[in-house]
Design brief:
- The chain is 53% helix and 13% strand.
- It is of the alpha/beta class and 212 residues long.
- A six-stranded parallel sheet has the order 2-1-3-4-5-6, sandwiched between helices.
- β4, α4 and β5 form a beta-alpha-beta unit.
Length: 212
């Protein structure tokens, strides 16, 4: 599985490269700034890109902007954002693009190596991985449309947006699979969104609604 890394800190960039190689990923490029990222993504067309948001020269949102631009040139390019910061505007733009896997994890909240590697693989396979803090910030900006949801439905919605399956949601909330399905159908009805059994599509549908 081919990977492009974008990280300005040399030690972290080297650490990510060594870690991914240890788990049988092929790191085809590891860049340190925004201007280098877009050409690397377009040239190598990796199976997944692991991208920091804030890269040189301005340390604002070069990484995320380059990833979004690359997905225009390479539709469906899987992108996992690994950052210390949440950029809600660009996060929504990236996450509501229905083509290819996407993820947004905060560096200091990745609990262990296995969690990170699992996230990389899930995004590469077309899935969605989201940090609960990112989900919380996106949902917090859209409280009025969510007012019709019950407390339990909001919990389910947040877990859906993290990319969790019905079974994972049931285990987290200690409820049955049928109860989860019932809550999800109710959420889609209240938000005016068509139900879907596709885990990736339903997450993006929710985020697309929140973006609107």
């Amino acid at each position: 599985m081919r990977v492009v890394i974008a990280e300005d800190l040399a030690l972290l960039r080297d650490g990510l490269t060594r870690l991914l190689r240890a788990y049988d990923f092929e790191v085809v490029a590891a860049v340190e700034d925004g201007p280098s990222l877009l050409p690397a993504l377009v040239e190598h067309r990796p199976d997944v890109a692991v991208v920091d948001v804030r890269l040189p020269p301005t340390f604002t949102d070069e990484g995320l902007q380059a990833a979004i631009a690359a997905r225009t040139t390479v539709p469906g390019l899987p992108v996992l954002v690994l950052s210390q910061h949440v950029e809600p505007l660009y996060a929504r733009e990236l996450l509501t693009d229905r083509r290819g896997g996407v993820g947004y994890l905060l560096k200091d909240r990745v609990a262990n190596v296995a969690q990170f590697i699992d996230g990389v693989r899930r995004v590469a396979s077309g899935g969605t991985v989201m940090d609960p803090e990112v989900v919380g910030q996106l949902l917090a900006r859209h409280q009025p449309p969510l007012a019709a949801l019950t407390v339990r439905e909001r919990e389910v919605l947040g877990l859906m947006a993290e990319g969790r399956s019905n079974g994972a949601i049931a285990a987290k909330l200690f409820i049955g699979d049928k109860a989860v399905s019932k809550h999800i159908n109710s959420i889609f009805t209240k938000l005016g969104l068509p139900p879907s059994d596709d885990d990736h599509r339903r997450v993006l549908a929710v985020l697309a609604y929140l973006n609107g």
